[in-house]
Each structure stands twice: as C-alpha cells, then as structure tokens.
Specification:
mainly beta; three-stranded antiparallel sheet; about 0% helix; elongated
Length: about 325
C-alpha cells in the first residue's frame, strides 16, 4: 500500500490479502488491508533486462544497512557497497553508486540537464526507486510517442523534463510521455482532465486520466484499475478471467478487480479476479457470478467517501 497518501477514499473491504495481518476488511479510516494494492508493474520482456548493469568501471550499487564490501562475480570487478553512518550512499573512485532513492521525484533535485525519474533497481518489473537520468537533447513532449532504453522500467527515455515514458509496449520499447505530478505529496498538481496517481511506495507519481470500471474508458492494452484513492487507466499486464488467480490489479481483464480470496469467495488460496457491479441497478446482486456462494454487490468505497461519478461502484463479495 502507498504509505505517502491518505486513503480516506479507499475501498470498504480488503482488496488484496495481507498475509502478515490476516485482515479481511478495511479499517474505519477507509484504509485497505492489502499490502500490494498500490503497485503498478509492466509485463516482463524476455529479450531485455532492467538497466541495473555493469559496464567497464561503472557499477550499480544497492542500499545496504551497514558498510559492506562485496565482489561482483558477473563483471569480474571488485565492487563496494558503501552507506555511511548518516545514511548517504557512496562508492569508491571509478565506480558509480545508485542508491534506492538518489533523488526526490517531487523536488526534482538532480543536476542541471537531468531529471529525477522512477526505475526498477532490482531488475524486476515494478518501479521501486528513483534515479537521475539525462534529459534527451531533443525531448518528446507530454502526449507524444517516446522510446525507453533497456526496459520500460529503466528510467531512461526521451521524454521532456517533468515527464516519463509510460504505457510502454515491451516489444517495441515505445510508449507515450506522461506528465509527472508537481507540487507536494499532499497537494499534488496535474494538468486539467487528469489526476495525480501516487503508487509504488510513492516513487511513481503520474498525471493519469481517471476512469470508471463499470464502463469501457481505457484504450487498448490498458485497464481501469484502483490505484491509491481512485481508478486510473494503467498498463494491462494480463487478461485473467473471473475467478482466476491474480497478484495485482493489472492482471485482471477489464471489469474485474483483484480481491482477497476470503472476500470474493473464490477457490483460489490467495486472491482472484472478482466482478464489479452496479449498486444502482434494479437488482445489483444479480450481476454477481456466484450468488450461490453468498456473493452480494458490496460498495467499493465507504459511504460518503466515493469519488465523483463512482458512487454506484460495487464489487461482488461474500460478506464477512
């Protein structure tokens, strides 16, 4: 779950299971119990890897708790992982140190000619860190096509300052430049027609169009998914059908949400794709695929906390 954003408009039930707490429903403050509800990933591309590589005398370093010296067996070079007592990350002469958060995506505190962007510093498919990268000499503007280098989560693209390449096709490594939120975390600013979606532990801050999961608002290869306090068009990373296993929202097909199995009533041990439903329908429960399991059309948001236009949004769940 995003720790930097208040969840006052969050779901009224636990959307994804939290194995540590075992919680099955949200608290009275509107928060959800699922730890993975606010993470956006991209599908893996077997032909590429994230940009955490070693070239010549420049190595990539990760955060460590104590001063540690290790050996980079892949490159044959000795590499040092050094974090000083004050928490600052550094590296020996001749090496480049890339800590988990070497810059602030809100403050854009990189050197002139560079921008602070999200990236995956662990070789995975989710943005989990921030780094400084050079702004392209001829950058693409927001809304224009863009190209990434290495992978969709490398943080290296040709978008202008204040934007990043999103909705990336992993095969062609092309996407669209999307504006990053400005302002502050509790007072974000975005262009008209978009809202600030803050996810991935606060490192991914994008101005995205909101959407309604009961309709068909998103372009191809995108899905209307709950991130933070609203629903946004995000890259689809799967087309899992109703009742099939899932780990995050982008894996379910349009019109479905990834819910904790104990909430949805499905046979999967952890979580599965559940159906949205219209609370304003004549018989809302009739839209639920497994009424025999006790599913009813349950409000997605707490009463009075619904974002504009989503007061009719429900999901088929088994009451606790």
């Amino acid at each position: 779950m995003v720790s930097l954003v208040a969840a006052a408009c969050g779901p009224s039930l636990n959307v994804l299971g939290d194995p540590e707490s075992g919680a099955q429903s949200g608290g009275g403050d509107g928060s959800t119990g699922g730890a993975a509800t606010d993470s956006i990933s991209v599908p893996p591309n077997p032909s590429t890897t994230a940009a955490s590589t070693t070239t010549g005398d420049s190595a990539t370093f990760g955060d460590v708790d104590d001063t540690t010296v290790g050996d980079d067996s892949d490159s044959g070079d000795d590499t040092a992982f050094i974090v000083s007592a004050d928490g600052m990350c550094s590296a020996p002469p001749g090496y480049a140190a890339h800590c988990a958060f070497e810059c602030n995506v809100w403050e854009q505190d990189c050197p002139r000619g560079e921008k602070c962007v999200p990236w995956a510093n662990d070789g995975g498919g989710s943005w989990n860190a921030a780094r400084c990268t050079e702004v392209a000499s001829t950058p693409a503007a927001v809304g224009e096509p863009c190209v990434v280098e290495g992978s969709a989560v490398s943080g290296i693209d040709d978008c202008e300052f204040g934007a990043m390449c999103f909705y990336v096709d992993q095969e062609t490594e092309t996407g669209t430049c999307v504006s990053m939120c400005t302002g502050e975390v509790f007072d974000p600013v975005c262009p008209d027609g978009t809202g600030c979606s803050i996810s991935n532990e606060g490192v991914l801050i994008l101005c995205l169009p909101t959407c309604d999961p009961l309709g068909d608002p998103c372009p191809d290869a995108q899905v209307c998914a709950p991130v933070s306090e609203d629903f946004w068009c995000v890259p689809s990373i799967g087309e899992a059908s109703y009742g099939e296993a899932c780990d995050q929202f982008g894996e379910c097909a349009s019109g479905l949400a990834c819910l904790d199995a104990t909430v949805s009533g499905c046979a999967e041990p952890n979580s599965c794709c559940a159906a949205f439903c219209d609370l304003n329908a004549v018989d809302p429960d009739a839209a639920c695929p497994d009424v025999e399991l006790g599913q009813v059309c349950t409000p997605w948001f707490f009463e009075g906390k619904e974002p504009p236009g989503l007061d009719d949004l429900g999901v088929c769940a088994v009451p606790s």
